[in-house]
Fold these 4 entries.
Entry 1:
Amino acid sequence: MGVLFKLPLFVVLMAIGSAAMLVPAVHALALDLHRTAQPFFYGAVLFGVLTALIGLATYDRPVTNVARNQLMTLIAAFAVLPLMLAVPMREAIGTVSFFDAYFEMVSSITTTGASLFDPPSQVVSPIHLWRALVGWMGGFLILLAAVAVLAPLALGGFEVVRPTNKSSNADSVIRRADPSERILRYTLQLFPIYAGATLVLWVALVVAGTGPFLGLCLAMSTLATSGITPSGGLNPWQVGIYAELLIFIFLFMAVSRQVFTNEAQQGFWRRLGHDREVRMTLLIVSLLPMVLFLRHWAGAFDAEEQGDVMAAIRAFWGALFTVLSFLTTTGFASHDWEAARAWSGLPTPGLVLAGLAITGGGVATTAGGVKLLRVYALYKHGTREMGRLVHPNSIGRAGKLGREVRREGAFIAWIFFMLFALTIAVVILGLTATGLDFEAATAFAISAITTTGPLADVALEEVAYTDLGATAKSILMAAMVLGRLETLAIVAMFNPDFWRS
């Protein structure tokens, strides 16, 4: 393991991607799909040899600027690595262009989950396994990058809680630290939790009645918040209420950094109970589903269906599950969510789901969006300013860290939110220039920036990803990478000091 991490990080990612190609190859062989297995097996051999040659040429090469090297590696991982991952997929399917296969891989590795396969049954199960596996690996890469790369740089949401007297030293700390040692340490810390939770959920889903293959895809998609499924959603004939309940429980892993970071080693439940992100999630999950349920109830009243108790219960559960799913940017829509629409006769509140996706999940999790901690900082700053209108000379409570969150943290969070909104506006403008109407462009833009691909499928009824042209797909792919890396990380690259050795 130590020898492996003396290689550049991108070469390590290439090695992992090459080895992962053997998984769908073995699955295809088990199904007697030799034509599908061959491209993945040959791809593993070809890219394995290529990775070995690049590794020999770059082994133990000194890095002059650690921060620059790691940020550039992340960009390459989400934008360049999918070129390699798309090759066996294109050859295995045979009926799609390489550009569309590249779109699928960018969507998967960024945990967006947008798919051009409509209906999903047009491709065999090893292809869906490959999509889910790439999304699962991308989810772990995001976790590792958050704690090992972005946290020392005070990016990715950590800038909200980092004391101001330490943020100025973040770059010097990461420059002096051994990047290989830090990445190895966090990999050994995070991967057992990530893989163990996936295994537990997989076994639980199989016990709950889902098949082994579907259960594995759902488990990987839930932990990675990618929303990738073989059926394009939660098929009611394959995913029952017990399976949805299990997924609902594990989705909470995407709302708090306490689950994965070393802060969870001591006093885990006490820390979790006091975590600001968890409290915000519980507030949203408690109030918003009730509002959506009352909306459906009012619609059912007009349709004279309000006396159907079971339909009402299913409507509430559908709202509860879907709210948490879109808050974590997973994008699963409960079957009972569709049943609630049939019960009330009302359309999908796409604006509400888009708002949840924009809010996003927790810092240092696989979720996308603005992130709950930034929203919390803006909320605390707003309440403090309203309090000062009544008591101008009052002193805020919550200690030094609380004051920094309300002041400097809220200031940086507001900058990020403005950059986030500006990015959405630019993407919408680009998509409308390709011929999409404003509503469709908004849904696709928010889906890509928040890495919640299924949002467009749920919110739109007449337009799908398959209807987009090459230019629109290119814009969405750029938005997926930008949304996954976050705008502040990209802006940091424009700092002149960033390019100095």
Entry 2:
Amino acid sequence: MSPLSTVRLVAPGSPREGDRLAFHWTTDAPDPKNWIGVYDGDRAPGTGSSLAWSYVTTAAGDITLDTSGLGEGTYTAYLLAKDGYGILARTAPITITARPPVVAPHAVVDSFTTGAYAAGAAVSVPLAPLWVRPPGNPAGTPSFRRLSGDAWLAVGADGTVTGTAPARPGPHPGRIVVAVKDSAGAGDTVTVQVPVRAAGSRPRLTIASLNLWDAGTHVDGLPEKLARLVLGQGLDVLALQETGGTVAKPLADTLGWHAYDTPAGVGVVSRFPLTDAAAPVADLPAVAATLQLPGGRRLRLWTAQLDEAAYGPYALRDGRTPAEVEAAERASLRHRQATALLAAMKGDLAARSTPLVLAAGLASPSHLDRSSKVRWPVTVALAASGLHDAFREAHPSPSREPGTTWSPVRPAEPQDRIDQIQYAGPLRVEAAYALCTGWPKPVPDTAANGWPSDHAAPAVTFTAR
């Protein structure tokens, strides 16, 4: 190495696959056969061929090498003497990262089923908000046309599916296949199924509760992934925690739904209109709203997130006795918040003719789940108030159906059911499950996960009695 010779990368500052690399060099030993060569990893000059090179004949200058064929990895550029392998100078390691694939504009989902429409009701389903143009794609405008389907369904050029639901529902949902063409050159198809509800039938809805893990900042493309989750899983209502006060409304706009979000970080996205929204409870992140269900029925929905500090299963893991853990839980902020939540819900719990659902992050296991003899005070208090654990009602055996929600991406954590949906009033549980789509990678490699959280989502399908 020559102390008076240098070589450094000038541009780009953060190279990606396909970039050409520009270097600046200086030397006190110029020669017509001096050269700069690029080598991968720890491979030194003289060990195999350089991956890109050029002669540099003067004492100083700038040169750009065609490195467009280099893949993701770490490289070093060397200033070498007289057509040989004597090293005059070297760069710091150069990291070339993968270039994100160019994603064409596309529909969020290829097919989905709408909510059920009453016989004779007007159908209106907007598809345009479901058209995604990823960053870096040229601006364009989608247009829509019908390809096939039931005669009573049509689509406008703006992407709104319209029609009048038949007076007599058939054995299958209505169906329309829509072609989408973007002026930027992309195309796709979307199949929309439209169920028709028989007159007098009782409303059926699926509610899920989802902790968005710091407002979704740990995954890429959150808006599209949330919309795909809701439509792909046939959800009707999503109770949200850790929204940052910014997630519910944009998601509802994409779906053509209704939303209530708050600076407290808890909110609701609903296929059904929302009324009587309650301001966040003073002592904890919790809000409520009334869902206006078909046929004039109503459902009162609460969502909340209790404090996560001093998590009880950690104490059990560390050797505390069940009695000690239970005493600590009773003295915790989490238990005080549960008490405040039940006080806020008191009037709704007393209105027995209107069903009530609590979809919440409890930060506590259930006394119905563990065999450790801990009667977890949070869920004991909920049960004492008259709330029913929907999942454990549908799956009485914790050993066969644990229903774990914490955590699909943190395998070293105690695996517990700390997110729950509980209910009171005239509802019947048709199905209950812990929802987590795909095979999410564990932390810290979560950015590309399709699943947008570090919690699984409890989901319950109810029928109004």
Entry 3:
Amino acid sequence: MTGPREAFTVPRRDLPGWRTRLLELTSGTDPARFAGLFGSAAADGSVRLTAVLFPSQAEKPLILETLLPAAHLCYETLSLRLPAAFWYERALHDLFGVEPTGHPRLDPLLLPLTDPAHTPLPGKARRPEPLTPEESAIPRTVLGPGVFTIAHGPVRSGVLESVEYLVETPGEDIPRIQIRVFHKHRGVSKSFEQRPLEDAVLVAERVEGTASVAHALAFCHAVERLAGIEVPWAARLVRSLHAELERIAQHLDVMVKLTEAAGLAVATARFGLHKERVLRLVGRLCGSRFGRGVVVPGGVHALPAPGPHEIDRELARLRRDITSDGRAAMATPSFLDRLRTTGPLDPLLARAHGALGPVGKASGSAPDGRYERPYDAYPSLGLGPLPEDTGGDALARTQVRWAEIEQSFRLLRQITEELRETAEGDALAVAAPGDLNGEAAGWAEAPQGEVLYLVRFENGRVARCVPRSASFHNLVLLHEVFAGDILTDFPFIEASFGLSIAGVAL
């Protein structure tokens, strides 16, 4: 891994030291931000645990590791002291059979199985047998007199991802929900293994369709750090161009869902039209509406097909129309009434959890890789003030997205001005060596927040790849925001989070 690194390996007596150090670093007056806990299986049955932290003001992650021997795949849970590890530990149990003893609720999350011998073991060089999730492995819970459970999903009306929300309610209020995402589990981590570099990028682009560019960037950043590659300036501009267009498109998608929930048919149609215009522009730039094929290890595949002047003209029209419709929507009393005080996320909880993207920024927790650990063209662009709020409700999350849309248009204007200075013959990529060996971390800021990749190569092929989306890190917070809200608030809260279930159920 790149950056500061602390490793605790076999023998097992080092496991308590790893746990103690991790808890020390994530507590105190200036705690490091917990970014994830991941596993990697070895041929001998052992499992390596890797915790990723971001100390304040640090440009690189801090990696802490320990090794669980095959005969003892357990450790004392972190979740009771570090609640942000709650879902990560459930995922470890599903994928590796690791048991965090004392975990408050070790129900299956990604892959409900009744036979632990069938766990997929990412990192171990073998293909698991076809797995059939067993829903009976997930307990149903109904609490209190008069409380009943509404199973909302996994198939719902409209074009929505497969996810099941078990809403436990006495009739209107929502005291508790359970979230079941396993319907979307695709075995993504195993899909990376043994692939050459050029194929692995294609998998990264398809981890989370709403953040294809961000995932490709995070993966390629890890590769470039490992190989010591300096990406050419023109390529860094093109990368940032597509990243900001992706951000605008996905924030508009959130507005489509919010206005649809409010019954604002004209606003829904208008924001859907603007999102389509952005996607069509992306398609004209590179041949893919999702920006796929643009980012390659070491740079980009090509310059945008239209020239900077043509891109500028289209962006100016988009900015004018989107801004006008945004102002109209955000001045509609019936719309604002549905957002204000709905689904509040407490700022203290947001900071303790390290909430990412607009969800975190709307509650005063504002990690953003473009500011904290800038990459590609961002160190040279005028980002301006960080969009953030402290309201914590659906309205605050919506206002943060509008601030980010405006910021993206400003950045895109700077990028097209810089692209005018590029020449046809300028270098666009530096080839990565074909015999890569070692490990590295990479990150990028998706519309939903920070995307993090841990990648290990052996003889030029991927031995282990851990993609962590902001959607996985943030969705667990949906449990915490139904304070006094009722069933009809549910679509507003879900849409205001703006997350991707595909990015959760990896």
Entry 4:
Amino acid sequence: MKYEMMIREIIEKIGGKENIISAYHCATRLRFKLKDDSRADEAGIKGVEGVLSVIKGGGQFQVVIGQHVGDVYKEMNTLYNLNGENTELKDAKEFKEGMKDKKVSSRLLDTISGVFTPVLGMLMATGVIKGILALLTATGILNSADGTYQILNIVADSFFNFLPLFLGYTAMKKFGGTPFLGVAIGASLVYPSIAVIMAGEPLFNVFSGTIFESPVYVTFLGIPVILMNYAGSVIPVIIICYFAAKVEMFFAKRVKDLLRSFLVPALTLIISVILGLLIIGPVVSFISNLLGAGVSALFELNATIAGFLYGALIQVCVMFGVHWGFVAISINNLATLGFDPVTIAGLASAFGQAGVVLVIMLKTRNKKLKSTCGPALISSMFGITEPCVYGVTLQYKKSFLLACIASGFGGAIIGAAGVKQYIYGVNGVFGWLQTINPAIGFDATTAAAIIACVVSFAAAVILMMIFGKDVIQDTNR
């Protein structure tokens, strides 16, 4: 196996397989949840060949590997029988044990990352396809009425439209429940008949005269049901699955083995879906809408300053694993508002890192560092910044600071221009596709996003040339 030696060293220094509660990976990192963090030899793991860095945050022990992390993870599964794509906690008892000693903030970030990480790859993939379609229609190459467009749009749109199914799976797995119960809950929320019912005439309205006024199309045992469009929604299915996991645990302890296989899931589905449609879904949807509107309103108070701060600090947030809160906000905004004006401010951060690394690559005489800079630079231009950050700029703290400042300039331009992202996609050059308005095509905001990235790249180069001379000297020692 190509990575066997590296994997065995990591597992040994992390405290052995017995110290691992769960393990999965994102774009560049192996993410472990450990029983005892103190047993992990952080310095030793950093010294393992092939490891870029180690980060502890959000209740996780994260080992930064790079873009080939997926291959490393597969080999780790083979060597240590981690059983599957995402070895999250096997039951409710382990879930409680793994979380009880962690701070509320760590629990929240750990939950968000555990729920969203498995689906981000597909969200980005379908987002890129959606962006390319927007580009093709904006340039007149395709027409939205064409069969070719419609077929490709099915490929691009289906994952986000049925996102509650996938989040139901990952959420139930995270909360210690049966994953396919989560899929069934998600499917219930986007069941086609709901849209058909909502297309008819409402029976009456509830909460009339308030911001929560809603039509009622159907009742359940005489109780009004406020139906919502849950396609592409995020928070409702997660909250319902949290409740469903508790319900399943309750019945699993009390139903005899003979009946458990069908009675527990039947009772769990009936109770969780009914309460989800009657209470949890509408309440959480109202909260989701208010959250999306509230975050956007805060950003609109001073979009230039907010954009600068977000652009400058997003890579710091990524380092400590606290960017997951923004991921959740972004996906929620896309579902409730149809766009996200917040996280797009970080689009230029990849170019800020790339500009700094380019100067180091051209100026340093360190052959090993120079060979690291080339692939890291290319990776950053396509939105994966970890090789730049952990392989180069963090080694020389000032270069990381200069990259963040340059990224802030781009974020300020994006904020001031009112740039929005209309799909969830990758950063880097493909990130520009996110800013194409699907309704009107190209506009000034897309141009502003491209300009912002160019400005961040140029600013990073200039800042390094003026203030980074000592960094270059350090690289040659």
